[in-house]
Structure formats: structure tokens, C-alpha cells
Amino acid sequence: MKALCWEGKRNVKVHIVPDPRILNPQDAVVKVTTAAICGSDLHLYDGFVPTMEKGDILGHETMGEVVEVGSAVKKLKVGNKIVIPFDISCGQCHFCKEELYSACDNSNPNAVMAAKMYGQSGAAAFGYSHMFGGYAGGQAQFIRVPYADTNSLIVPNDINDEKVLFLSDIFPTGYMAAENCNIKPGDTVAIWGAGPVGQMAVRSAFLLGAERVISIDHYDNRLLMAKQAGAETINYNDVDSVVDEVRFMTGGRGPDSCIDAVGMEAHGHTMTANVDRVKVAVGLTTDRPDALRQAIQSCKKGGTISVPGVYGGSLDKFPFGAAFAKACKFQMGQTHVQKYMNPLLNLIIEGQIDPAFVITHRLPIDEAANGYRMFSDDKNECIKVVLKMH
Questions:
Q1: pTM over 0.85
Q2: Which fold has domain 2-168+335-388?
Q3: Which of 131, 134, 173, 277 is the most buried (most CB within 10 A)?
Q4: Strand partners, 29
Q5: What DSSP line would sit under 100-133, residue for residue?
Q6: What is the pLDDT of residues 4-42, one digit of tens each?
């Protein structure tokens, strides 16, 4: 089969590799019809996630048709059209039973590796380094899905792939980020980052009752997309201080909640952002957390900081004193995708949202490497890339 493989920093290529097969009675094999490139994939592309190996198959936003099931699979049948969550969960451990699927105890065969870095391992993930399980990803013509009954959502055969593909990651991620804000009617939510997750968070915040949403970025097309959903916008290149601008827009009090939808590769022109760039360049730190710093400084006293943006290591100059003094609450973590897939599918079917709005580019699998280059280098024009596998 054709699959997009990681070859090294900023180097991905399509190769012919062996088809996946059933390895465990709980497995399914899926013929991938549609996949997508995620902002988190760029962390792999840029070389910020350790334990990648040459030839690893990328991708964790995936859907397709079931072509084979193991003997212990009960829910899925050959021919089912399914969306596959990015996180791999067993469905049976303490955390899965608590619907904390991304904290699964059993799915990561390399849990010791993750525990050395983080103290404990969370769930494995498709196509996301050996520290997170070493599972082959879904930017390929076929994929093996472990614990298939848990890690799948059956969708109607007559629904367009692009309407439901993002139930695999960015729609649940943006929704959980907004839900973590505990939004009340009349609330103001500020969102750093107007990429795909930020766009989903904007719309999710409104769905959950926010009165105002402020979207912060420096790409005009991304800000325009957020504005089309009703958000007010800040281009951080046009203001002296994002923190001052956010406070001005909220009467000096600050937003009720702030969402960092940027994560470890934040850009900016503040002094701390410049220091981050230098320290990352010379290997003294792994993350550039300037969006998170601004969110903490901007948030109202007693407000909530929600963090769906991915972080990988230790954060320098983290304003924990400000967070403590302001009594801020923090909600964060990898998304418990399986918890959200069914209710969000219902929102799509009811016509309350069509997540396909975020797609700007559609490419065949053979052009996937070019898709990565565009998504990495031209974020103003390229907001979301969808890959067609057959």
C-alpha cells in the first residue's frame, strides 16, 4: 500500500509498504478513504517530538471502510463506515471507564518510555512517535485499528466524509477546550490561535453559550474565518501588546476564560517570544509557550485557562505566580475523543455545524509531502489539508 512516512526533520515521503493485518482478536483493518494533516503533525515534521524513527507512518485524523475484523470484535462489521479517534484506548481500564480515554493505562506498549519523561504514560496515539506507542498512522491506504470496538465511530454511509472526518481530532479537541472553560451565558472567551483547533473552539464556545469570542492570531485569512463565525479578532502584529488589547476589549477585567490553541510552537514579537526562539534553536528548551503566558496574564481573576495546544517538555519563564495570585483555574490535556464523538456527530446531523468549513486544500496521497510543506510554510492560505487515499 501507499503510506506517508517520516524520514527526518522536515522530510516526509510516500512509500510502498506492507499492508497491515490483524495482530490481535480485537483489531480491525480499515481501508482509509479520507485523512487529514493536523497541526500536531507539524511538531513531528519540525522535529520537536522525540522517538520518531525513519519509515514511521504518519497521521491520526482518519476515516474509512472496515475490510476485516478480529474474532473478538463485536460492534464493527465489514463494510461499516467509521471515523477513528486519534487516541488509542482499551475501553476497559479505570481511566477509560471514567471516560478519560486519553489517559488509558493499557494501549501504550512503550509506557515505560513515556513515564520516564512524564512520570506516567497516557494513551497511545496513531502515527505519533514510539513514545506514544509506535502505532502506524492513517495517512496511508490501510490502517490497523487496535481495540477496534472502542476506537471507532460508525457513521451513516450516505454522509460526506468531509463532514465527519474531523470527529477524529480537531472538532472534539476544540469542543473539549471550550467545555473545559465552564462557559456561562454572557461569558467572554479569548482564544489564542486561529488554526483548525482554534476555529473549532470559536464555534464550540458559541455553541456552549458564550456571548463574545475573541480570536488572536497573525494570519489574516485565519482571522477572517474566525470573524465569519462571529468572533472579534486581534492581529497581534497590529498591536503593541496583546494583553493590553484584550484587557481594553473586556473593560479592564479580562476574559472569563482563555484558550491556548497554539501550544509548543508559538510565534510572537514579545521579548519572551524572542528568548524562546533562541533557546529552542540552541537546544536549551523544547517549547515556546508565549501564547500560554499571554493567556495567563490576560485572564480575569478567578477565570479559567484551557489548554488544548500540545506541549512536549518543560516551560521557561512560566508565570505561575500570576496564575496563583489571580486564582486561575487550569484545564488541559489530550482530548478524550471517544467521549465526544457521538454527541458531536449528532450536532453535525442536526445541521448545527459543518466542520468541513475549515478545509482549504484537498490532495491525493501522492502529493501528501507537498501538503505538509504548504501547511507548515503558508499558514495564511493553507488552514487545513485533506488527503484522499484511493
A1: yes
A2: Quinone Oxidoreductase; Chain A, domain 1 (3.90.180)
A3: 173
A4: 68, 144
A5: -GGG-SSS-TTHHHHHHHHSS---EEBTS-TTTT
A6: 999 999 999 999 999 999 999 999 999 999 999 999 999
